[in-house]
Amino acid sequence: MIAFVRGPVAAIGVDSAVIEVGGVGLQVFCHPGTLAGLRPGQEARVATSMVVREDSLTLYGFSDDDEKNLFELLQTASGVGPKLAQAALAVLSPDQLRQAVASEDLAMLVKVPGIGKKGAQRIVLELKDKIGAPSKTVTGRPLQATEAWREQVHAGLVGLGWSARDAEDAVTAVSPLAADSPNPSVPDLLRAALRVLSKA
Prior knowledge:
200 residues, alpha+beta, CATH 2.40.50.140, DNA polymerase, domain 1, Helicase, Ruva Protein, domain 3, 9 helices, 5 strands, 45% helix
């Protein structure tokens, strides 16, 4: 299996990046928080998990090994595939996810698109003894350009299935949070925008 890839970022799309490794461009599917830390032309190291299907080999990428390990652990729960596991990590940080499972906070888990109450109950039941306690060490990646977060959060929401109009409304709703920080964290703002949309 491919544990990580390192190389210059050749391209960044809505839900994936192409990283050049030894002259080969590898497409790595990432959630918006991971994509926010990548810059075209700059070298990056992305922790990866390979999902093997009969008709495909798919690489999923993460900003660190902690996210990757949680991605793989989530898929051991009944009904959780790679896309749902990645959506969970897009909405919740690793520590938020651990806290939600440890405290049986179903309301937090159902904020993830695709996870209903029964699914949240299964995740808690099957992972509570495996997921561990929050580490308090995971932080969001700050953006260099203050206003660049808007485009990335918008693209992330669209990539998760929301309409462009809903995404724009959510970006506007979380703008005050970004104004409070000189270096807004795209993962944090994306999670806030998803919370706004889940209440709509």
